[in-house]
Specification:
This protein has eleven helices and eleven strands. It is of the alpha+beta class. Strands 1, 2, 3, 4, 5, 6 and 7 form a seven-stranded mixed β-sheet that branches. A hairpin with a 2-residue loop joins strand 6 and strand 7. The longest helix has 19 residues. It starts with 5 loop residues before the first helix and ends in a 19-residue tail after the last helix. The relative contact order is 0.17.
Length: 346
Amino acid sequence: MLTENEILSRHIGNNPGLLSTGRDQYFFGHGKLLLSGEYFVLDGADALALPTKLGQSLSVRYSSSFEPKLNWKSYDCHGKLWFEANFEFWRFNILDENPSDDMVELQKLLRQARSQNSHFLRDDVDVYVETVLDFPRDWGLGSSSTLIYNLAQWAYVSPFELLFKTQGGSGYDIACAQSEGPILYKKNSTGPQWSQTLFNPSFKEQLFFVHLGKKQNSRKAIEYYNKMRPYAPEVISTLSSITTDLVKCETLSEFEFLIRAHELFVSKTLDLVPAKTEYFSDYWGEVKSLGAWGGDFVLVTSHKDQSETMKYFEDKGFNVVIPYRELIMSGSQVDNSGVELGKTLH
């Protein structure tokens, strides 16, 4: 059996970390997986979200200049440069010819950060930014949300406002980016509410994440969800109740019952095909979609050993199978109510 971290390193290689020789500022955001409340978290359902050990870093270096420019480079988990752009400071106009969609998207984020903090990048310095992902870009663990969180920390603005005014969404991924363990998340009319919760299942050795090999488009998933509005209050309360029970459950059989009920309820409400039905109808355990259905990762349970479980999925062509313990942040100290001690929510 592969040792701790060997399974992950087989897929993500040896991340070189910061590629430049020096830095003046450094920021890091955790990736995310949404265990419950997908879609309906947009309408106030309680959601259980899992920050990942893998994330994205952003480093900044400054150099005096009479004609300030911003140079941005992004590296993947193998150290390969996949994006580069150059901006002038005053309006963040793109200096590169034929700007790509990614350049325009980054420009929107920079301009919104400036609107939230008028002092952001106003000095006479050249700025060199490097971002480095810990995970493959097609894994859906939050390359956008970790970028937004890191950029907001750098610009000293609200990451939630930066998200809501540019890309939209529920914001649970932004909360995950700054959390050290599982969280309960809720979005209501007053804004996001979240706290770290005590979710560290005794049966975590029997939980695995399987990548379906498809990159799900979150925006299209949200558009599909919005078209089917309105939803009865009972829909939101039912899913919130399942989330509460998931945090409290103590056995694998109870956990399997709850995620099966969640899958069937979401499937019936949104007319979607469960991942187990579509991909793994002969699998012995349960399969839970994570976030937008149809792509990225699913969580699976198994009463069989790790090697047999991994062999089942690999034989079907799904070669990225990661044990729960290797991917998910376990969390820090929490009190008896399940809320992290000393946590500032923002």
